């Protein structure tokens, strides 16, 4: 999620149409826009003002930053609930609940990233198919969108796995009886 947020390739210029310009590739991201020349030189420009940006871009930024922060909190909470950690080792039920709580936070972080990337992708697709958008200013999905979708899916999957470690409720079955223990053999007991 961090990599997807930082990448400038959220949308890239589309070369569909008659006016094909291959001398440069244009990218736009959440924080900057970049132009890559055919020589390999990249020039990026950070967006000047936060207030000049579209509201949907600001909301996408906020959702991605919230997903990152929630993911970091989820890591710390879930690590506390791991069986290999010494923290809270005297109460296994609370330890398992911490792991489940970390999983829930991971799912929320994944949902925030999924909403942000899907919303941005929807805007790119709608602008691409809008007949009033000039052909030379159309954009397609960039690689950061695909990385964001994969990261959101993995965060939700990991959270679901952590939620599977939910402590079981007490059952009303009678307690099981153990087998009687045999006395240790001295080695002289022959049959």
From TrEMBL:
InterPro entries: Claudin (IPR006187), Claudin1 (IPR003548), Claudin_CS (IPR017974), PMP22/EMP/MP20/Claudin (IPR004031)
Range of residues in the leader sequence: none
GO molecular function, one term: structural molecule activity
Transmembrane stretches, start-end: 59-79, 99-121, 141-164
Coiled coil: none
GO CC terms of this entry: bicellular tight junction; plasma membrane
Keyword Lyase found: no
Keywords on record: Cell junction, Cell membrane, Membrane, Tight junction, Transmembrane, Transmembrane helix
Subcellular location per the Swiss-Prot or TrEMBL entry: Cell junction, Tight junction; Cell membrane
Principal place of residence: other
Membrane topology listed for this record: Multi-pass membrane protein
Entry-linked Gene3D superfamilies: 1.20.140.150
Function: Claudins function as major constituents of the tight junction complexes that regulate the permeability of epithelia.
Family recorded in the similarity comment: Belongs to the claudin family.
Protein name: Claudin
Encoding gene, per UniProt annotation: Cldn1
